[in-house]
Design brief:
It contains 17 helices and 18 strands. The chain is of the alpha/beta class. The strands form 3 sheets. The protein has a 6-stranded antiparallel β-barrel with strand order 10-11-16-15-14-17. It has a 5-stranded parallel β-sheet with strand order 2-1-3-4-5, with helices on both faces.
């Protein structure tokens, strides 16, 4: 699978600060910190702060040191019991993602001067974390040996990248959210709470900018790149000039308007007036930008764009946005039983969208026309304004479904589910594939329907549930739902069903 170029993705600079309770040997925390750092050299390294934090003055010295080193994600490491006041003050004042972890005892042969009691210290740290209203990352079992803590820090890096990226993100929206897809029309107050900037614009703003790019000298180079990517799938080359011009329009808009934000995504209205006025379907451009870590969500789905971006941050792979779209017919299920295996019919669905999924995830990607738009706009003529779609079958792959959503009651909610794209021909149009998620039928009813999620899911093409679940919690989601296994009831599930 494709790895994202570092264009719209933050770089995480990890730092580790060891803390020490003044009645324990400082040397114990220092030695254990060095051991963790040595383990991390195999995974890109970590900045070691030389300050051992025992008191408030040490907090200030440690903050000055890690800030000078460019650290933007901090590990507070309890090499021994640790001073709960200063260590949580350090996390509070740092201003970025923070992880807490603690040292396990190393050997039964050194439990006098070599005993650190960090197992106990984490309990007091958690109490003070609550007093300060902090929301740090704490691994599932946050106490370990040097190799174990190093592994925790590697996992923290992915979570930290999500938190950093969201905090410095701007979402550009073009056009009102469509009435026929009112589910995409969600309150944006929760986004401001996250630190996300929103700039909503008219479709006229976008159209005016597109007109100004009519003779842009860069268009040919973008067309050549599109033709190279499409290869044999370049079935409608006549539409490439408009698509190339549109791609440049979006990228220039972001560059000229992102202001104080470092990263950006789009949520654009894409039908039906788009086709008649711009003269094409924008799906292929959306797919190309997503492949560079710049999601363009359809139907002005602001939370969809955010969800896609979070998927990209967590996986470092291009995301997509798919409709949780249609069931798999019984005859197709029966014909493919050898491939489907033990999955039940209700575990399967088809993930579909018009043509926004990156080429790298399609086994036979081709430039085509958007069938739904053709039916609506030009049913009795050769495809013209309905061209610009990227059709193809999703490749066999692991997948993770994810969405972060602001709800009507002012809350922030999320879901995560892992599954796989099956090697089954969907026999349909658009970017589409048969997806299996264990117990999808119950998840569909008791999460997606019961908690009123829209039809769009952010999709990552690997299993990233652990990272996304933790990230959603740290972003403040009051509920992070998942596909519960058979035998584990949802709270609203009918026990007699």
């Amino acid at each position: 699978m494709s790895i994202l170029p570092v264009v719209n993705i933050p770089e995480v600079r990890l730092g580790i600060v060891a803390v020490s309770r003044d009645c324990f040997p400082r040397s114990l925390s220092e030695r254990r910190r060095v051991a963790v750092a040595n383990e991390l050299k195999k995974a890109g390294g970590v900045y070691e702060c030389p300050v051992i934090v025992e008191n408030e003055r040490d907090v200030l010295a440690a903050l000055a040191d890690v800030q000078a080193a460019g650290v933007n994600a901090l590990v507070v490491y309890l090499g021994n019991f640790g001073p709960e006041g200063p260590e949580t003050m350090l996390a509070q004042k740092f201003g970025g993602p923070v992880m807490f972890a603690a040292a396990a005892e190393e050997t039964g042969g050194d439990l006098i001067d070599g005993r650190g009691d960090a197992y106990c210290g984490m309990l007091n740290a958690s109490y003070n974390i609550g007093l300060r209203g902090l929301r740090p990352y704490i691994p599932e079992y946050p106490v370990g040996t040097a190799p174990e803590v190093a592994h925790m820090i590697v996992e923290f890096e992915d979570v930290a990248r999500v938190l950093i990226g969201v905090k410095k993100l701007k979402i550009f929206g073009f056009g009102p959210r469509p009435f026929d897809f009112l589910a995409c029309n969600a309150p944006i107050k929760q986004l401001f709470d996250l630190g996300v900037e929103i700039q909503e614009n008219s479709e006229l703003d976008l159209y005016e900018s597109y007109i100004r790019h009519e003779n842009d000298p860069r268009i040919q180079a973008v067309m050549d790149d599109m033709a190279k990517e499409l290869g044999a799938g370049n079935k409608m080359p006549g539409i490439l000039p408009k698509l190339a011009r549109y791609e440049l329009t979006l990228l220039d808009w972001a560059e000229n308007n992102r202001g104080a934000s470092d990263y950006f995504v789009f949520a654009n209205k894409c039908w039906p007036a788009f086709q008649t006025q711009f003269g094409f379907v924008p799906c292929y451009v959306n797919s190309r930008l997503a492949s560079r870590g710049i999601p363009v969500a359809c139907e002005t789905d602001i939370y969809g764009a955010l969800s896609e971006y979070i998927v990209a941050l967590a996986t470092l792979m291009p995301p997509t946005l798919l409709d949780i779209n249609n069931t798999v017919p019984k005859d197709m299920y029966d014909e493919n039983k050898a491939v489907i295996g033990s999955y039940k019919p209700t575990d399967l669905f088809m993930g579909f969208h018009c043509g926004n999924t990156p080429m790298c995830y399609l086994s036979n990607g081709e430039m085509k026309f958007q069938l739904i738009m053709k039916r609506l706009i030009e049913p009795d003529k050769e495809p013209d304004v309905s061209r610009g779609n990227l059709d193809g079958r999703l490749v066999k792959s692991d997948v993770t479904l994810f969405r972060l959503q602001g709800s009507a009651d002012g809350a922030l909610r999320s879901y995560v589910a892992e599954g796989e794209v099956l090697d089954v021909d969907p026999k349909s149009f658009g970017g589409i594939g048969v997806i299996a998620v264990p117990e999808m039928g119950r998840f569909y009813r008791h999460v997606l329907i019961a908690k009123r999620y829209p039809h769009h899911a952010g999709v990552g093409f690997k299993h990233a549930g652990k990272t996304l679940y933790a990230a959603a919690q740290l972003l403040g989601a009051c509920d992070v739902a998942y596909n519960r296994p058979a035998g584990t009831r949802y709270p609203d599930e009918n026990p007699f069903a």
